[in-house]
Amino acid sequence: MTKLSVNVNKIATLRNSRGGDTPNLLKVATDIQDFGAEGITIHPRPDERHIRYQDAYDLKPIVYTEYNIEGNPIPKFVELVKEVKPTQVTLVPDAVDAITSNAGWDTIEHKDFLREVISEFKKNDIRTSVFVDPVEKMIEGAKETGADRIELYTETFASEYAKGNKDAVLPYATCAMLAVDLGIGVNAGHDLSLDNIKFFKENIPGLLEVSIGHALISESLYLGLENVVNMYLHRLK
Ligand SMILES: CC(=O)[C@@H](O)[C@H](O)COP(=O)(O)O
Ligand SMILES: NCC(=O)COP(=O)(O)O
């Protein structure tokens, strides 16, 4: 079974745009789980433009499913994760000024660094995952770091699939099979959506978890607008 972990970064983006507490992140995270999602993902960035570090603490007692915290393991992030103790930490090599995550780790070049932070998280009983492009050498490198899982960076798959190139899933399938053979769990995320998720799931062996945010929140607007507009019209009669 593949677990759905909902990334709530975009809820925090909307909240921060007005400086208040609407939408309320904790209510949304509670509702998402009550509606059946099996996890909540956050990706606090150093500039706290969406998820604030304090949100990570506030969500801890609210998340009763799997709690996944993603980010670049700078010292401040490592301390945060060790204090919050989520179910899983996903290490992402994102630059401070990146609009969003745009590449996986070079697990060979950064093997020693990754091995060190991963062992620190493992001592704290936190499952570890490393964000990687679908390149076999990077999966083998991830194994060397001691990570429990990889998260396949699915941006290329998503953009190619949208253009009709279904073969774009093949490197992901190959890497997932390799990971399973090596005894590493397989997660995936970035730009997955209602349009591409079924095909991706059907083609990726052993897919344990997907984390989805941007498309899922956008789709919630598209699919929820009619209901809300009609509720306003009803009150204005
Ligand atoms: C690792 C990954 O693909 C997601 O965490 C994505 O980066 C979401 O982050 P943003 O919401 O900041 O784009
Ligand atoms: N790890 C990927 C994630 O959490 C969500 O990415 P996206 O759906 O916002 O692109």
From TrEMBL:
Task: Please list the residues that bind 3-amino-2-oxopropyl phosphate.
Answer: 7, 18, 191, 213-214
EC numbers, comma separated: 2.6.99.2
CDD domains of this UniProt entry?
PNPsynthase
Pathway of action: Cofactor biosynthesis; pyridoxine 5'-phosphate biosynthesis; pyridoxine 5'-phosphate from D-erythrose 4-phosphate: step 5/5
Question: Which residues does this entry assign to the site Transition state stabilizer?
Answer: 151
The primary location reported for this protein is: cytoplasm
Known role = Catalyzes the complicated ring closure reaction between the two acyclic compounds 1-deoxy-D-xylulose-5-phosphate (DXP) and 3-amino-2-oxopropyl phosphate (1-amino-acetone-3-phosphate or AAP) to form pyridoxine 5'-phosphate (PNP) and inorganic phosphate.
Q: What's this protein's name?
A: Pyridoxine 5'-phosphate synthase
Organism for this UniProt entry: Aquimarina rubra
